[in-house]
Write a structure and sequence with these properties.
The protein has 377 residues and is α+β, with helices and mostly antiparallel strands. The protein is built from five helices and 24 strands. Strands 1, 18, 19, 20, 23 and 24 form a six-stranded mixed β-sheet that branches. A six-stranded antiparallel beta barrel has the order 3-12-15-14-13-16. It has a four-stranded antiparallel β-sheet with strand order 2-17-22-21, with no helix packed on it. The longest helix is centred in the middle third of the chain and has 37 residues. The N terminus is likely disordered.
Length: 377
């Protein structure tokens, strides 16, 4: 018993050298932690402000300008056709050719119409002879009636025969005029000066009356035709001035007005056909030429910022806003109305008077202080 008690009171064996070395290393690490944390904090406090440029937010009138490609078309486009049917004997013009008013474009074989004309002339001659005989009989009956050598019945019969003969003559004259007119219809003539844009017949082909033979674009002012999306038509003010520029030569330009807007939407493209009248159309804008039409939409109040001012936060558009007192920056989400040439049009998210970073924002982080290199109003 006493031996065990004595042994339990004896001191334990001394620690090993490895244990002493680990303990010293741990104490050294613990002692260095506060020092490195203080060093990082001091480095953050000594971080220099970022040099940026800013802009003061202000509302401005923004009228987006829309440019579309279209073609020059004739204001008046006529489909020409023969008024009588027959075989085309001659075609005198071709597509792209300019014709004057009254110029003969094509001819139909006039054999049938000439035959009708001879028949009508013969009927007229016969009617004229009947009228001459009926007139002589009437005059004779009239003389005999005054002398009492004929009856009233014979006189009335002669008078009726004369009137019938006169009517037959009038009908024959009308038929002759119709056949002459039909003969003139065997020549297709241009009703107005213009350019042939299409043809549907060749010599030797049989055509029916009223069948389209040529399409002619009459001379005069031209139209620029555009296929416009319906949303653009809704935003554009009524009667805007449209600048028309020739695509192949921007030096050739003119100013026109919207003359016609199609009431129906094309189901295939979802667009509306708009015709812009071009008064005094330049000679350098021929039919079918490609042009660019530019017009401004209705102006709206918006904020215009350089595109460099735009950043993002959580995947949404944002800008850096400067606190005027602390010069610290923070992000503000914005709603972009449109992207224009070199600028971003902001609709919501900012207030007038705020300062927005326009250059140098890629170097910023929330709470970062800045130094303004230059501000634009």
């Amino acid at each position: 018993m006493s031996r065990n008690a004595t042994s339990s009171a004896l001191p334990s064996s001394p620690p090993s050298p490895l244990f002493r070395s680990n303990t010293l290393l741990l104490l050294a690490c613990v002692a260095t932690l506060p020092v490195s944390g203080c060093q990082k904090q001091q480095a953050a406090e000594k971080k220099l402000p970022v040099l940026v440029t800013t802009q003061t937010v202000a509302l401005a009138d923004y009228a987006p300008r829309t440019s579309l490609t279209g073609v020059i078309a004739a204001r008046t486009l006529n489909n020409l056709s023969f008024r009588v049917g027959g075989r085309v004997a001659e075609r005198l013009v071709d597509v792209g050719q300019h014709v004057d008013q009254g110029a003969v474009l094509a001819r139909i074989d006039p054999q049938e119409q000439e035959s009708d004309l001879r028949s009508a002339q013969a009927d007229l001659d016969a009617a004229q002879a009947q009228l001459t005989q009926a007139a002589a009989t009437y005059q004779r009956q009239k003389t005999l009636l005054s002398q009492g050598f004929t009856t009233r019945r014979d006189f009335d019969s002669a008078d009726q025969t004369l009137k019938v003969a006169q009517g037959s003559l009038d009908a024959a004259q009308s038929a002759l005029a119709n056949t002459k007119e039909n003969l003139s219809y065997t020549e297709l003539k241009a009703g107005a000066p213009g350019v042939i844009t299409a043809r549907q017949v060749e010599a030797g082909q049989v055509v029916q009356a009223a069948q389209t033979v040529f399409t002619i674009a009459e001379d005069g002012d031209r139209d620029a035709v555009f296929n416009v999306h319906e949303t653009l038509v809704a935003r554009t003010p009524s009667g805007p001035a449209v600048t028309i520029t020739l695509l192949s030569d921007p030096q050739i330009r003119a100013v026109g007005k919207v003359r016609e807007i199609s009431p129906a939407v094309d189901p295939a493209s979802g667009s509306i056909r708009v015709k812009v009248g071009i008064p005094n159309t330049p000679a350098g804008m021929p039919l079918g030429a490609a042009v660019i039409g530019s017009a401004s939409a209705k102006p709206v109040k918006a904020i215009l910022l350089p595109w460099q001012a735009l950043t993002s936060t959580a995947g949404k558009p944002a800008v850096w806003v400067v606190d005027p007192s602390s010069k610290a920056v923070s992000t503000a989400e914005v709603e972009v109305l449109a992207f224009d040439s070199g600028v971003v049009v902001v609709d919501k998210g900012l207030q007038e008077g705020q300062n927005v970073v326009t250059a140098g924002g890629q170097l910023l982080s929330p709470g970062q202080t800045i130094e303004v290199a230059g501000a634009s109003q």
